[in-house]
Amino acid sequence: MKTRITEMFGIEHPIIQGGMHYVGFAELAAAVSNAGGLGTITGLTQKSASDLANEIARCRDMTDKPFAVNLTFLPSVSTPDYPGYVKAIIDGGVTIVETAGRNPQQVLPALKDSGIKVIHKCTSIRHSLKAQSIGCDAVSVDGFECGGHPGEDDIPNFILLPRAADELEIPFVASGGMADGRSLVGALAMGADGMNMGTRFMATKEAPIHENVKQALVAATELDTRLVMRPLRNTERVLNNAATERLLDKEKRLGSDIKFDDIMEEVAGVYPKVMIDGEMDVGVWSCGMVTGLIHDVPTCKELIDRIMAEANSIITQRLEGIVAAKLAA
Ligand SMILES: Cc1cc2nc3c(=O)[nH]c(=O)nc-3n(C[C@H](O)[C@H](O)[C@H](O)COP(=O)(O)O)c2cc1C
């Protein structure tokens, strides 16, 4: 397939792996890129700019294909060294950056001056238009279904994507709830130039996370995610577990008085324990509703090849067949 996104990023297939905290290491990014998609290293998972520089170099050793780095701007206890991370990205020769969380204006001039393409992840049309107006090259439109932070508007992709197609001039990819060839064809039909997947890429052989996490995704259904931190206007979609239930109980008890401090135990510093040590109930961790469509743990290449074969067959057989049957009648 050839879309504005494959052309812009120099990739074979219109499939992107979104940045994921403690999941988006060089191994996964390289595997996705080697399979013809766009892999992404998660910048802030690296504790310092020099760690990020090393991770970029490690990824470069594993692939000669383009890969991206994610820079997330979210409320955090201490402000990360964004200028240092940007320098590591530029010096490392990275050509694509995925920004997310807040308006990426502060990093745009440096990235654009270095010829880096910026795809900003947004959960609303107004934020997408803002991204377009400040000079982002593309957006990743993240529907209510998504794992991670779906924002506060709660608009699912069947509405959000056609709205994005109506409003935007720059290309966009569909993000949230994407899993297979059906997702890709649906996204293209709604005007997207590709799709971004998070949760689905966690359940792959190369994702350098604990097997317990992958098996939890295979076992879970679409009914097993919850929204947490809504009262703090920092909503996150996570897999239901003991910590999630405890956190939701605190939200219920404390109501609008709840503070970040009240939920530190459930949210702070839990990612390495879940993703690396496989302690499944130690805290809350992002997971999309799409977990209900995940039934196996393939390699990234098997997954991407399967998606492309399914998408091609839907377009050339099922859809063409439907149109041909009508014409023949
Ligand atoms: C475990 C996990 C961690 C994530 N961490 C980040 C992150 O650090 N920065 C970011 O921009 N998005 C993050 N995301 C969001 C993904 O990049 C992607 O937008 C989202 O997963 C898409 O929805 P899906 O899970 O339904 O595919 C995370 C998602 C997951 C599942």
Task: Describe the fold and architecture.
This protein has 329 residues and is an alpha/beta fold. The protein has two domains: 4-208, Aldolase class I (TIM Barrel, Alpha-Beta Barrel), CATH 3.20.20; 212-289, no CATH class. The protein contains 14 helices and ten strands. It has helices spanning 4-9, 26-34, 49-62, 82-91, 108-113, 125-134, 157-167, 181-189, 199-202, 211-219, 242-254, 264-267, 271-275, 300-328; strands spanning 15-17, 39-42, 67-72, 96-100, 117-122, 138-142, 172-175, 195-197, 225-228, 236-239. The protein has an eight-stranded parallel beta sheet with strand order 1-8-7-6-5-4-3-2. A two-stranded antiparallel ribbon has the order 9-10. Helix 2 runs parallel beside helix 3 and helix 8 (181-189) packs across helix 14. The longest helix has 29 residues, at 300-328. The mean pLDDT is 97. Residues 18-21, 23, 42, 70, 72, 100, 121, 142, 145-148, 175-178, 196-200, 285-288, 290 line the site of flavin mononucleotide. Flavin mononucleotide (FMN) binds next to strand 3, strand 8 and helix 9.
Order of helix and strand elements from N to C terminus:
HEHEHEHEHEHEHEHEHHEEHHHH
So what's the oligomer here? single chain
Strands of the biggest beta sheet: in what spatial order? 1-8-7-6-5-4-3-2
In the CATH hierarchy, the third-tier topology of the largest domain is known as: TIM Barrel
Q: Quickly give the CATH architecture of the largest domain.
A: Alpha-Beta Barrel
The overall pLDDT, averaged over residues, is 97
Main beta sheet, described? 8 strands, parallel
Tell me the fraction of residues in β-strands, as a range. 5-15%
**Number of DSSP strand runs:** 10
Domains, number? 2
CATH uppermost class of the largest domain: Alpha Beta
Distinct small-molecule ligands in the complex: flavin mononucleotide
Helix fraction? 40-55%
Radius of gyration, CA atoms, in whole angstroms: 19 Å
Shape: globular
**Number of separate helices:** 14
CATH superfamily name of the largest domain? Aldolase class I
